[in-house]
């Protein structure tokens, strides 16, 4: 049986049984962004009157990133043969398309699968818990958001460093390299950094308050 | 030139220029444990009178793990050819010996190098900062310890999951598998888990106190 040529780099990557992508890039991206916007809109609507703006934005982020982790990345982790899919399943199409930016997904690189596994199974559900924690003003709200964000940053570090160590040659061309590999992942470096910074400061402020109260009690 | 046989598994691992280990296992372990005990003893002595027992223990842990990360793991990260070392350099001997438990170190597996790189360059110095934070009772003491511990746990997860995905066949025999690979790393799962749990609780308690104070102020 002649093997169908895949569009990924390195060109010698073996993908026996590869079935070409059937959806267009614009359809794949539109469905992802459209359904993400719908999620954000629903979360905003649901908590619209009760919460401050920054908290609503955070809940939208946790809903968006949590569902991305669980659904998209969860599918990848548990579908080692997504590149053979011939049913035009949307989730398989997403990863066939994304692999143009990083062929380690199609090639099942163990570092990528590990990070994605941790992200889908542990980080994803924790993101949904963060929505609940913010909504109910739980005492663990900031510390949970910090821990998740640190996990996301650690995952991104492993993701980028392993690529560099393995030659950083996994993108079909520089358009996919900068839009998918750098551009899409960049948000998961930027936003978790901002959230970590905010939560760190909030936690330190609470600790400081506590010390002040204890000192006051002592000096009375 | 005939290649010297290495003791690592898988047997087909290529290590051109390999120089056999010259120190005995007992010497390597004794020097590591001896110098670690010295560090612990010095930290205990230095803060002996001023701190509660649990805080002294934590400072000892941060000194031990921080120096292990920076010196031992730092050497590994920046010495890709340690297995060629013929000077009986102690740090090279450590990694020649440890590779019997996990040959991915000698084989320069990119996931292992990534995790060790993050550990040596970011986590290690952060551990030393944690000693200072505890000593000076900084407001960021608990949150720093939590972030470091979460990083260590994430690193261990990537370390173990990548090994499983790659076939879990990197130990010379089951003695090295259980003593080095499982036994030695087990401490970096157990202790960071305990510290994370403690810091999480401390941070939540402080957050709870803050909420109570605010509520009291409002109801006055």
TrEMBL record, chains A, B:
Example of a GO MF term: C-8 sterol isomerase activity
**Cellular compartments annotated:** Membrane
One BP annotation, GO = sterol biosynthetic process
* Main subcellular location of this protein, as a coarse class: membrane
InterPro entries, sorted: EBP, EXPERA
Q: Which residues cross the membrane?
A: 20-47, 59-78, 111-135, 142-165, 177-197
Record's keyword terms, sorted: Isomerase, Lipid biosynthesis, Lipid metabolism, Membrane, Steroid biosynthesis, Steroid metabolism, Sterol biosynthesis, Sterol metabolism, Transmembrane, Transmembrane helix
Provide the membrane topology annotation: Multi-pass membrane protein
Q: Superkingdom of the source? A: Eukaryota
Please list the residue ranges annotated as the EXPERA domain.
54-196
Kindly list the GO CC terms recorded for this protein.
endoplasmic reticulum; membrane
Q: Name one Pfam family in it.
A: EBP
Q: Which family does it belong to?
A: Belongs to the EBP family.
The record's section on PANTHER family has: 3-BETA-HYDROXYSTEROID-DELTA(8),DELTA(7)-ISOMERASE (PTHR14207:SF0), STEROL ISOMERASE (PTHR14207)
User: Which named protein is this?
Assistant: EXPERA domain-containing protein
